[in-house]
Structure formats: structure tokens, C-alpha cells
Amino acid sequence: MANQLQNQRQFFRLETLLDVKFKIPKAAEPDHDILFLNAHQGQIIDLSGGGAVITSKAAAEPGALIKLKISNLGLTSPIEASVIRVENLSDGSYKYAAKFESIGEEDVKKILGFLNQELLKQSRKLQ
Predict the structure, then answer these.
(1) How far is residue 54 CA from its own chain's centroid?
(2) Predicted TM-score of the model (pTM)
(3) CA dihedral in degrees (18, 23, 27, 33; nearest 10)?
């Protein structure tokens, strides 16, 4: 089953550790916080060109749309993603899977370039 799911993915996934700021905008309110000053903090622990797994103290419900600002990747704009699944962790934080819904082609290329570099680093450590 897991192998079948892996084969259905459009992009490969890689465990990583990246800081992320994210917002859970309310549909009825305009979002004027373009600098993410009032954003939640979290960490991406798994990343692909199509989504991420995030840990954070902030809760998000399945189906929620969130805006992500990922550190250190040089992305051109925040990524809009939908929360697919949420898991409560023993320390009171949350882990959730998010699928990228609105991301530019250039940003996908930057993410894939980062993942390729990380994969190369990891393979060198194994040699």
C-alpha cells in the first residue's frame, strides 16, 4: 500500500528541517499581513515539490487553506496550501500534511533544486 502511494506521487519527498512561517487566513477577512508579522512559526520536516509536513504549536484543521513562507529557499512568493491531515503530538504540538495548491513553476524548481542538493549531501555522508 505505501509503495503504491509512493508511486502515485508527482514529486519525491525528502526529510529535512526548515523554518516556516504560516498563516491561516479567514476567508471573510482580507489579508494585509504581507510581511508575515503575525504568522505562526513551525518547522517543515518533510518536503516535496507538491507539499510539506509541518510541525507547529498552532493548530490547523483538515481542509484549511494556509499560506506558507519557507525560509532559506529564495521563493518568490508565499505558497498557498491545503491541510490534508492533522496529528496531535504528545508534546501538545501538531503535525500536519499540506498539499501545495498555488505555487509558481519557478518556486517548484527552487524547491526541487534544494531537495536535489540535500539528497546529494545525504548520499555523500553514506559513502
Answers:
(1) 6
(2) 0.83
(3) -120
